[in-house]
Amino acid sequence: MERPLADLEGGTNVSEKYKDYIKSNIVKCYKRKIIAPLIYLAFIVLVIFISPIYSILNPTVLDSTKSIKEQYEKNSYIKTELKNLYFTGYTKEWLWGIEGYYYYTNVNNDCVIILLTPDTCEQGKPVIDNITIKGKIYKNSNTESELLSRLAKDLSWDEDGITSTLSGYNINEPATSGFITWLLIIAALGSGIVSLCFVIIYGLFIINPSISTPVLRLKAYGDSNSLLSLAEEELATLPQLATEDMYITEHFFIEVSLYGIAIVPISEILWIYKYSTLHKFLWHHFKISYTLHITASKRLYIKCPKNEKSDIDGVIEYLAEANHNILVGFSEENRIKAEEMLKRK
């Protein structure tokens, strides 16, 4: 419900109640806003450390002091230098093409099957003298066992003999370099960085409300800090009209609500109108709420949603009286006039 100045508390109480009112509400606003990115950032950090992402980005260096089995039990994601790799003649296919090429080599006195990406092995190079790769250690599956059996026949090896020297584990490079793997990593890290940026920005706004977005918008009309100080002073000493979350002073329209903070010089307002919304769930109709739309010069657009009709009507009436150049009401004619006025300003 709108409250004219005469209906407000006494002058001293009004001053105390509205002292630094805009700044304090900017702080409250961004304290609410910072919660969501903080929670999401904590979630992403948790995901990174409990999922393979951290291990993929920080693989353990496999050295000669550990066997493949010991490394697998500690951290299956590794970075290692391999020498004298021999192509088996077999590839692994997945969906639309070749995922990798099977090689074998000696790793810490074990004969190990290595699956390399096409780029790493240059599409199946017969012998690779030396490479450094990142990969994941897997226990040998039926695929590797069948590969070993075929390889033994191809090379006329003793299958039982090679089985006794073959490691029970293989190294898979595509598992750490696949498109989907890196797409998920980039998505997680990217969204985490965005959340961190919001946390930092909102934190700065909380520490110093004078650099927040609602205040910086005032730069279009002059010195933002001076205009904020004037708005605070007028709100504390002589508000012309006050609703639950909208205020009018001598020179400013001010919105302070759960939906945002807005400070607009009345002299810069070009067009105002209200828009009604019928709230319903399925076939049940609930109440109608009203949104005040304000268009100001420098292409500043303000929406004050979910207000009472009487409050918005009172605000529109006060603003129209304070600035006779304001276009009142929604119509195509007013929209065209507002666009023309914006171009001139």
Could you explain the architecture of this structure?
With 345 residues, this protein is α+β, with helices and mostly antiparallel strands. 42% of the residues lie in helices and 33% in strands. The chain has a five-stranded antiparallel sheet, sandwiched between helices. A five-stranded mixed β-barrel has the order 3-4-5-7-6. Strands 14-13-12-15 form a four-stranded mixed sheet, sandwiched between helices. The two termini are 34 Å apart.
% residues in beta strands? 25-35%
| Oligomeric nature of the chains | single chain
**Helix/strand/pairing category:** alpha+beta
Overall average pLDDT: 86
Q: What is the succession of H and E elements?
A: EHHHHEHEEEEHHEHHHHEEEEEEEHEH
For the largest sheet, list the strands in their spatial order: 1-8-9-10-11
Uncertain ranges:
4-12
SSE layout and pairings?
Blueprint (H helix, E strand, L loop, with lengths): L2 E2 L6 H7 L3 H13 L1 H16 L2 H5 L2 E2 L6 H7 L2 E18 L2 E11 L2 E7 L10 E13 L2 H13 L4 H7 E7 L1 H4 L1 H29 L5 H4 L7 H14 L3 E2 L3 E3 L3 E6 L2 E6 L3 E13 L2 E13 L3 E8 L1 H14 L4 E2 L3 H13 L1
Parallel strand pairs: 2-3, 5-7, 12-15
Antiparallel strand pairs: 1-8, 3-4, 3-6, 4-5, 6-7, 8-9, 9-10, 10-11, 12-13, 13-14
Helix pairs in contact: 2-9, 3-9
